[in-house]
Design goal:
Shape: globular
Radius of gyration: 19 Å
Distance between the termini: 42 Å
Number of helices: 2
Number of strands: 18
Strand content: 25-35%
Order of helices and strands: EEEHEEEEEEEHEEEEEEEE
């Protein structure tokens, strides 16, 4: 019932993230925060890294010769009937397509309008999302779509503390078996050569946004894409990879952002954790990257 919903995101999001009132008691140690943050300058996502564009247009695109977009000679966002969406090349699974280029949004130093269409992920949640308890009684909390979502729409970021690999390993090693969930996500980006790998690790366990509550799915309706704006530290953005119905559970494949370790059910020896996503294509176990953990 709508009257049972309260605002989880406080005043941080343009469109509030709602949660069932009685579930707040389970989140006493969690603080909602909409952006990545870090405890060290090296990982600080607020430090300006990239120059801004000089566009005077209301909204940037490849036709305005925006430096944030033209470096890769294609628009990563498209606009149809007033709706800004991710280009299908980023979530099309066809092996015949070359990997799409990195996404750089306009940043703090850019001359364009704050309403520029190349400022999408940085503006946070733009649609109603609801945190609820999964009805199977096994998966814990989940996130439901508050309205119909079109393919390519930005849903939310997976935001939290930006940490090092050593910190990630310490965090997962301290999990209590059967009691603690692991929320650490690691994303590896390959640039040209296999040896050129950028590793971004996010931990929203204590402080993060609604992305923290989205479960893994072997047949996901979301895809995780690194998006950069001010900083070399990317925002881990979640986009719809197909149309999503109102009330449908949201899910992304953790191998799109590799889980470091697993939840508290996993044994120290590396035993895989049973997957409960329920997808027809379910592999039976949660993804686990042994090269990282």
């Amino acid at each position: 019932m709508a009257e049972d919903l309260v605002n989880l995101s406080q005043d941080f999001e343009r469109v509030p993230v709602k949660i069932r009132r009685h579930l707040l008691e389970e989140l006493q140690d969690f603080e909602y925060f909409p952006r990545n943050f870090a405890d060290t300058e090296e990982l600080d996502p607020t430090i300006l890294t990239y120059p801004g564009c000089s566009c005077q247009a209301l909204s940037c695109n490849i036709d305005t010769n925006c430096q944030c977009i033209t470096r890769f000679k294609q628009n990563h966002y498209i606009n149809t009937v007033g709706l800004t969406r991710l280009s299908a090349s980023y979530y099309d699974n066809s092996d015949t397509n070359p990997p799409p280029p990195p996404i750089y949004e306009c940043n703090t130093l850019c001359k364009c309008s704050s309403e520029c269409r190349n400022r999408l992920v940085q503006n946070g949640v733009q649609m109603p999302l609801v945190v609820d308890r999964h009805d199977d009684g096994k998966k814990g909390l989940c996130v439901l779509a508050g309205r119909h979502i079109s393919a390519g729409e930005f849903v939310c970021e997976y935001a939290g503390q930006v940490i090092t690999l050593e910190q990630a390993r310490l965090a997962t090693a301290s999990l209590r078996p059967g009691r603690d969930m692991n929320y650490v996500i690691a994303v590896k980006e390959h640039a040209g050569h296999d040896s050129d790998v950028t590793l971004t690790i996010i931990d929203p366990r204590r402080r993060g946004n609604v992305g923290r509550f989205i479960n893994h799915s072997c047949g996901p309706n979301l895809v995780m894409i690194p998006v950069r704006s001010d900083s070399h530290v990317p925002m881990l953005a979640l986009f719809a990879r197909r149309p999503i119905l109102a009330g449908e559970e949201l899910g992304f494949h953790y191998n799109g952002g590799d889980r470091v370790g697993s939840d508290g059910d996993e044994k120290a020896g590396g035993e895989l954790t049973v997957c409960r996503c329920g997808a027809v294509s379910c592999s039976g176990f949660l993804p686990f990257d042994r090269d990282i953990f």
